[in-house]
Design a protein that fits this description.
The protein is α+β, with helices and mostly antiparallel strands. It contains six helices and 19 strands. Bound molecules: manganese (II) ion.
Length: 288
């Protein structure tokens, strides 16, 4: 099953190019959290209500995906975690004048992106007016936590995953003279497009098969699979859940393969993962 959040935080089941609007069904099933938190509440109860949801969804109205505004597929997670340098190919390409000296995910663990940087999967990436700085795309598969995970072992870790989605970890690179905090450089508004859909974990027996491709202006720049990760999904959960309890709805971006590069206003980013969906992201200059 693939889930979407659209318009006024309504929830849809994806059926090809349509969404079955199950917002009212969910309310009937007891998922009555306020709009931005509705998806998190659904994720926390997903296993319990799935049979009822599937059954009653057949009567729910449909809307065409092209006629709605897709929101970040988890609009209000408690945490947005991310793995630094989790593909060898990307770690190698970063050993230049930019990013020198810091190690991989094995040394660094995880970082956070501000929740306020989240945006929808077709919303523009808004670059701030800093003409001497470089902004890069980082295409990443993300997983979403389904139940509280505290000191979880590797072999149980995938039981805590509700599903998989996609996140572009847009990043302002360090410059020759400026080395701001990583969290700030990755937390400008719209620097975390999230979606378009959440593919539930029951359809992903092993996440190593998930394969991502990102293009800019029709030219492919990034391609990789989760089989290439230095620390795999169970390893990321094991480590992060030993630091703090992960919560239902928490988003964890797994890292980016080689091929990161600059984006500028006027560019068009396309990001696809087979089985999950496609993001279409115009790049614009921020207007505020
Ligand atoms: Mn990243």
């Amino acid at each position: 099953m693939r889930l979407a959040v659209f318009d006024d935080f309504r929830i849809g089941l994806v059926e090809e190019d349509e969404l079955r609007d199950v917002t009212d069904v969910l309310e009937w099933l007891g998922i009555d959290a306020p709009g931005p938190h509705r998806m998190t509440a659904l994720i926390a109860e997903l296993d319990a209500i799935l049979p009822g949801l599937v059954d009653r969804a057949k009567q729910a109205p449909t809307v065409k995906v092209v006629d709605v505004h897709l929101r970040p597929v988890v609009p209000a997670p408690r945490h947005v975690l991310a793995a630094p340098k989790n593909y060898r190919t990307h770690a190698e390409e970063m050993r230049g004048p930019v990013g020198t000296g810091d190690g991989t995910v094995l040394d660094l663990g995880f970082f956070l992106k501000a929740n306020g940087s989240l945006s929808g999967p077709n919303d523009p990436i808004e670059l701030p007016p800093l003409p001497d700085r470089e902004f890069h795309h980082e295409a990443e598969v993300a997983f979403v936590i389904g139940k509280e995970a505290r000191a979880v072992s590797r072999d149980r870790a995938l039981d805590y995953v509700a599903g998989y989605t996609m996140l572009v970890d847009v990043t302002m690179r360090n410059s020759e003279t400026r080395r701001e905090e990583r969290v700030m450089r990755k937390s400008f508004y719209t620097f975390a497009p999230l979606g378009p859909y959440l593919l539930t974990a029951d359809e992903v027996p092993d996440p190593v098969t998930l394969e991502l491709r990102l293009s800019v202006n029709g030219v492919e720049r990034q391609h990789g699979t989760l089989g290439d990760l230095i620390v795999d999904v169970p390893g990321l959960i094991q480590h992060a859940s030993s630091v703090l309890p992960l919560q239902p709805g928490d988003v964890f971006a797994t890292g980016t393969p080689a091929g990161v590069g600059p984006i500028v206003p006027g560019d068009h980013v396309t990001f696809e993962v087979d089985g999950i969906g496609t993001m279409d992201l115009p790049v614009v200059r921020r207007s505020w």
